Amino acid sequence: MVHVSAGTLKDLEFDQIRQLCAAYCVTTMGRSAVLEISPMALISDVSHALQKVNEYLSSFHNDNTITNHGFEAINKALKMMSIENTYLEIADFRNIASLAETANTLILFFKKFKDYYPTLNEDASLMAPNKTIGLEVYAVIDKFGTVKDNASALLSQLRRDIRSVQSKINTSFAKALDHYQKLDFLDDIRETVVDNRRVLAVKAMHRKKVKGSILGNSKTGSIVYMEPESTFLMHRELQNLQFEEQEEVIRLLKTLTAVMRSFAPELQQFQFFLTDIDLVSAKAKLALALKAVLPHISETKEVEMVNAYHPLLYLSNLKEGQPTYPQTISLNKEHRVIVISGPNAGGKSITLKTFGLLQLMLQSGFLVPVKEGSTMCFFERILSDIGDNQSIENHLSTYSYRLKQMRQFLNKCNPKTLFLIDEFGTGSDPELGGALAEAFLEEFNEREAMGMITTHYANLKLLANELPNLVNANMQFDENTLEPKYKLIIGQAGSSFTFEVAQKNGIPFSLINKAKKKIESGKIRFDKTIVKLQKEREKMEKISKSLETEQLKKSKESNKMTETNARIQKKLESYQELYDYNQRLIHLGQKINQIGERYAKHNRKKQLMTEVMQLVETENAKKKSAPKSNQKAPKSPMTSVSKEVQDKIKTIRASKQKQIKKIVEKPKPMLHIGDEVRLFGGKAVGTIEALEKGKALVNYGAFTTKVSVDQLELVKALQA
Q: Which of 189, 166, 219, 236 minimizes the C-alpha distance to 199?
């Protein structure tokens, strides 16, 4: 069971959290439920509540948005149903039907998306959808909020009769109106309505000439309002029918109330379910506004709040455009108690309240504004002593009140207790009060309670260094500007900067020196030592940040070098592929050159064709057997090498192609009769005597022969 006093809830401003949350509710019952939230007794209940809020929060970021849960409270209707022979109003039935429909929709929704909302579905699955409630209500009442004509045969007949009589009344009145209008007995307005009845506006001088009942007259008395005799009797019949209609409507409502009475337990369950959904929804909306998360819940006494901030301060600063400084707070078996010191207005109290308020919020089922991955645990008792609590009514001074609080702390402190004390030991003589506070702190430590205190007392700072499981902490303060940094540093006590702050606030330096002489030199040295240690810590932090920056810079440079090496390696691979490709081209060119030389020497076309075909087949076989990545080798290097290399490659290729072309494709000479020629590769020179169909008759002196023009090369052309 969790023990948290009303005073602790007030000290930690928990009611303001409830008020903030209540503003997000959409139902009156939801708002009432939020305002009654308090820390829960069982950790299982806390975990269940936190999971529901976390699941609802996730619905704001996915496509499966949770449907509307709004409803009108039916508490009054449920009470009425418990009384026999009573009946509900039509509005009550409509609220009941709407509530049942909303509950049905959500129950089916959570069942459909149980993978997204397992905990919410767990609660919803405790109920079964009930469509009968809505069907029963809407069988009697229509969407406009009236009892349907066909709700019963008698009601249907009565309403038909009522409409018939009303029609007859209108017809009869119209005849009377027309008749007396022609006789000029009526005023210019002709007619009006009195007591829901149509009446004739008769001139006062003619009232005795009109048959009917007088129902009133004008303020001046010049007009008399009369109901024609013919409609008077019909109105009496209409009233009787309307009375019977109302009786039948009441009978139907009583019957429907009796039907709803049997569903009262389900309706109560539905209302409780929707109220809880409204509460969970409000908590989730508040979590969204605070950027709150679900921390890890530890079963051991361990707290690691990372980047925690006070929710009320965060919202206030957000509205004013001011920053909120987060704190990292740790409590565990080794460090059960934190002793925070430092100057006033440095953030000690707000850090204390942040820790306490977030713990209350967590144990009340609220997500908390900490960094994801933070760890929190469960305390069975939370005690606090924060602020000046003088009691005029009970004639208690601040110190008397604090002693009374300490007595309660001593009675209740155990390993499952969290205590929070602001300005521990103040209110009495500093020496005596400090000594008593020291004794209290030793007792709390022996009882293995966890807690956090703020103090200016040097003896408590020393005690935190000496005792096991206690740790000093300070709120950082800039000695140069004398401005707080609002940052908690665990592991070192803090100076109060008493004289420095006094100097900043205009206290004469001579007076400050006079004050320094009045206190023990040991205390001054102790305070100076603390200030020096704080400076050293700040210096170390700067060095640490500088080293981190340098390390990050080197890491970036290393990554850059790795990328550069990868690019160079890729280029080398491209050059290698290009080299291999060019070597293959050169080798191919050499083979073609050899084939061309053999052909020129032996003039064997068949052998030429055979060798060329063999060469082509060999190259094709190589391409097929080569890996796919190598098939595109000629192309890929060209896209990766530099423009200069590409230009050189083009030059080499052009040169090789020219060589091959010279070998394979000799240019055809333009031969004429009388030109001196010789066979390709031959030495004998002859003269062309005749040309006919690609053949040339060549005279070599000793003999004459016919040769194909393609086999001849021009030695000397005949001069024109």
A: 189
The 10 Å Cβ neighbour count of residue 519 is 11
Q: How confident is the model at residue 266 (pLDDT cuts 50, 70, 90)?
A: very high
Domain assignment of residue 590, given as a range? 561-664
Under 8 Å CB-to-CB from 253, ≥6 apart: which residues?
87, 88, 89, 90, 93, 140, 147
User: Which of 38, 29, 10, 137 has its CA nearest to residue 74?
Assistant: 29
Cα–Cα distances (Å) from 451 to 353, 418, 469, in that order, read 12, 5, 11
Please tell me the distance from the alpha carbon of residue 592 to that of residue 660, in angstroms, as a whole number: 7
Same domain, 38 and 126: yes
pLDDT at 655 over 70: no
3-class state of residue 520 by DSSP:
coil
- pTM for the full predicted model: 0.67
Regarding whether 191 and 83 lie in a shared domain, the answer is: no
Distance in angstroms (rounded) separating the CA atoms of residues 577 and 262: 88
Q: Is the dihedral of CA 545, 345, 409, 418 positive or negative?
A: negative
**Domains in the chain: how many in total?**
5
Cα separation of 301 and 318, whole Å?
A: 33
The residue behind tokens 């455009």 is 321
Which strand ranges, in their side-by-side order, compose the sheet holding 676-679? Answer: 704-708, 695-699, 686-692, 676-679, 712-716
- CA dist list (Å): 700 to 677, 679, 705: 10, 12, 8
Of 281, 260, 277, 279, which Cα lies nearest the Cα of 95? 260
Considering the domain architecture, whether residues 312 and 163 belong to the same structural domain is answered as: no
Q: Residue 435 sits in a domain of what CATH number?
A: 3.40.50.300
Residue with tokens 């009432």: 32
Over the stretch 492-528, which tens digit does the pLDDT of each residue have?
776 656 666 666 666 776 776 777 666 655 455 555 6
Residues 6 or more apart in contact with residue 393 via CB below 8 angstroms: none
- Token pair 């040097």 is found at 458
CB crowding 623-660: b at 16 or more within 10 Å, else e: eeeeeeeeeebeebbbebbeeebeeebeeeeeebeeeb
Sign of CA dihedral 696, 699, 700, 704: positive
706 sits in which H/E element: strand 704-708
